[in-house]
Structure prediction request, 290 residues.
Amino acid sequence: MIASGIREAREPLIGQGPYEILDVTDKERLERVVHEHEIDTIFHLAAILSAKGELKPQLAWHVNIRGLRNVLEVAREQDLTRIFHPSSIAVFGPETPKDLTPQETILRPKTVYGITKVAGELLGDYYFNNYGVDVRGVRFPGVISNVTPPGGGTTDYAVEIFYEAIKRGRYTCFVEERTVLPMIYMPDCLKATLDIMDADLSRLKHHTDFNVAGVSFSAGELALEIRKHIPDFEVSYVPDYRQEIADTWPRSVDDSAAREEWGWEPQYGLESMTSDMLDCLRSRNESGGL
Prediction:
């Protein structure tokens, strides 16, 4: 197993195993790395996310579409075993049902990131149906991590708020207090990734577009939950352009297809996620690592 990125490896990757500097839009370099390391499975996570994508739409299209096409072509040419390519709730748009968004529903996103994710789902299905490339993916909601800092997504407030609660005791939120979005805690995100990759192919009716749900809550509900641990925590709400993106996304999704086809079940709710997130960040803060 190797890790890769467009920059030199940083903690916690240093010393954990082989690492390659790799730009996924460079197909020749990708081919070389896959061949040299005898790679048979790729977890393709490189992407420009929603908020950053609206600021740099041409870059988002280049990285998200050309990068995926390169991965799929290398998989086809070198007969790789399996590809994981995550999709996102960004595939949905204002015409999509907001509550318990169905697995099969209208996909009319209003961001270039969402557009690339719809195209990615369709490309993955095309390579599976026409070339036999075993491409799998899930539509992740907002991912909350106590290790990886925010990366330019519309749901980043749900990560930033924890860091600011620990470091400063106050936070200015870029979405409204009432805004409800589906989220998933990183341990559940990793569990979903590994579970779908280990699933029996014969059981899968879908491949690249599974809805997965973790927990849905409003920005205000998250702040209240944090105050149970940090009573003096203060939050103000100053919506920016990301509010318009959030308003096009669902409040909750129906993940019954994932549950039926590969046994998906999240382990964290709002209370358990908040408690674990704060415990982890407090420990890092006390050791000077936050």
About this structure: The longest strand covers residues 180-185. The chain has a mean pLDDT of 94. The chain is about 40% helix and 15% strand.
